[in-house]
Amino acid sequence: MRINGEWVQCDDGVMRPCLQGLIRLNENDWIEFPLLLDAGADRTVLNAQLLEVLQPLANAPSAEDVQLAGIGGSAVTTTVDVIIWLKRDTDDYIKIRGPFSAFTELASSDISILGRDVTNNFRVIYDYLDQAVMLLAPPHRYEIKTT
User: Fold this and answer.
1) Which of 51, 60, 95, 96 is most buried as measured by Cβ atoms within 10 A of its Cβ?
2) pTM for the full model?
3) Domain locations in the chain?
4) How far apart are CA 136 and CA 88, in angstroms?
5) Which of 93, 94, 91 is nearest to 121 (CA)?
6) Are 4 and 134 within 8 A, CB to CB?
7) Which among 34, 13, 8, 12 is positioned nearest to 23, based on CA atoms?
8) What pLDDT shows up at residue 132?
9) Predicted pLDDT of residue 58
C-alpha cells in the first residue's frame, strides 16, 4: 500500500511534508484537510479550526482529555471520535479510526498533525530533495542504493 503526500508551503513560507485527509461529516458531506507528517509527535491531533467544524462529533470533556506538550509549549485538547480517510495510490481509501485528540485553541496549531500513533504502522519517507512524501505498507517497500 502506498499513500502519497506532498511538500506544502505553509503560511510561514516553510515547506513541510503533508497528506490530505478526509473526514465524513454526514451521509453527504466530507471535509478535506491537510495533515502535517510529524515524526516527533507521539499522537495525531486535529487543529482547532477543524474541531469547530467537527464540534457535533466531539466528546464532552472527560478524564481522557489531556494537556499535550511539545516544542511550542503545552496545549489543552479534547477528544473527537472520527475516522480519517487517506487516499491510496490506487485511488481507493483506507480508514484510520479514532478517537483522536483535537486542540481547543486556534493558536495551538494552524494545521492538523499526523503523529506516530498512525505513522508507526507504515514506512514513512520524507524526501525533500526529490520532493517525495510517502507512507508505505506491504507489498510496497523501498531500497537504498549507492549510485
Assistant:
1) 51
2) 0.85
3) 2-136
4) 10
5) 94
6) yes
7) 34
8) 96
9) 61
- Averages of pLDDT over each 10 residues, the chain, 147 residues: 95 94 90 94 91 71 52 71 95 94 84 95 95 96 90
- Which residue do the cell numbers 503560511 mark? 11
DSSP class per residue in 12-79: TS-EEEEEEEEEE-SSS-EEEEEEEE-TT-SS-EE-HHHHHHHGGGBPPP-TT--EEEETTEEEEEEE
Cell numbers at 37, concatenated: 507528517
**Residue 120 CB contacts under 8 Å (≥ 6 apart), including other chains:** none
Q: Which three cell numbers stand for residue 99?
A: 478517537
Residues 6+ apart with CB under 8 A from 79: 58, 59, 62, 64, 65, 98, 99, 100, 101, 102
Q: What pLDDT is stored for residue 63 in this prediction? A: 46
Strand, helix or coil at 100?
A: strand
Residue at grid coordinates 524526501: 127
Q: Going by DSSP bridges, is the β-strand pair 45-46/83-87 parallel, antiparallel, or unpaired?
A: unpaired
Domain 2-136 carries which CATH code? 2.40.70.10
